[in-house]
Amino acid sequence: xxxxxxxxxxxxxxxxxxxxxxxxxxxxxxxxxxxxxxxxxxxxxxxxxxxxxxxxxxxxxxxxxxxxxxxxxxxxxxxxxxxxxxxxxxxxxxxxxxxxxxxxxxxxxxxxxxxxxxxxxxxxxxxxxxxxxxxxxxxxxxxxxxxxxxxxxxxxxxxxxxxxxxxxxxxxxxxxxxxxxxxxxxxxxxxxxxxxxxxxxxxxxxxxxxxxxxxxxxxxxxxxxxxxxxxxxxxxxxxxxxxxxxxxxxxxxxxxxxxxxxxxxxxxxxxxxxxxxxxxxxxxxxxxxxxxxxxxxxxxxxxxxxxxxxxxxxxxxxxxxxxxxxxxxxxxxxxxxxxxxxxxxxxxxxxxxxxxxxxxxxxxxxxxxxxxxxxxxxxxxxxxxxxxxxxxxxxxxxxxxxxxxxxxxxxxxxxxxxxxxxxxxxxxxxxxxxxxxxxxxxxxxxxxxxxxxxxxxxxxxxxxxxxxxxxxxxxxxxxxxxxxxxxxxxxxxxx
Length: 495
Fold this sequence. Notes:
By secondary structure, the protein is α/β, with parallel strands linked by helices.
């Protein structure tokens, strides 16, 4: 029987991406457009990505939202767009050109794509699905009951909140208020929070929140925050206040989701699921947790393809992008770590998602605080930003207090308190935490073998792991990008 191929597309707003799924439930390919165009957060499907997709015989193209509904919301919000009923075929024609010819076209709701991306890649047959982002077409928060019936995923909407009431828009408004790029640099706000003084969250809540249980705000934060408000507060304390309030609101959502008693399994999606500080306490509400490594809009390319396919996807690992051929250069990497303490890696398929997980990574010896400064200088980023450790999974409890029910964190999705910050200071944040990546034997990357050999040589079971890029640029994608990185930033990149 001939396999069908489903192409999921997330594009038109920010961080465009594409994913290919076949009718055997395999994810054949998934990649961000920015890795091909070199434009950080590229909203459109780039020519390089189109060329990569051309090798697959696509039967169905599924788009991650309903264009006309989004346009209607933009009219309502006063974004100054002209009304004409957009069709998915028009949008996809702009993004993919002739690739749409002779293909079935499907559209699916934005939040449903988030839900499907998580649930249909999860290990669960039944789950409570929570989606929290800035905004879909109209939804900002949705809770779903998900299960399989006769092999197909089914979704029941249990609760929702709508524009303009949005945890994601609130966090983005604070990000903009701090002089950062909203929808792109919220992770910097999260990093700044460690340096702030606690307690401002309650004041922000009093000013902004109308109903914390229903997640209703007093103002439309899509237009930003009052710049006169809290102008006496240093940026770090404002960042912490935003983090405090966001966590409080997220936990109200999780409490509500658990009260439906649909399942004790949680699937969590949407851009807010990238907040690894808030993720620490999810285990107080649910027994088992699954977060796709790419829970934001780009991951909805997998979600739209999953909905077109209908069944459970064979999720194995996030290494789904452009492949650099050849074996993982373990010994070459070790040589450079021993001699120089730092090395780049560009090997095998690229990671799908915002985290470098060993295949497009900058790796360094974590045992000296000076290494943190050196890596920050190479990456051209703020000195207050934290770095993550990639650690052999069997050693994680020796060095970190993992949050409740977070036995492992293979995709850097949660922070943990460091037990011995004095031993490996380069990966310890100002608040004594680290965003941990636990590397198991079935991790799907050569990083596991590298860590084992590094441990035998040094007695250190971890490496500092950060993305192979500099601030404002996408991660290295292919060997040509790696050569450029070597030349510009003076770091050997092994393939």
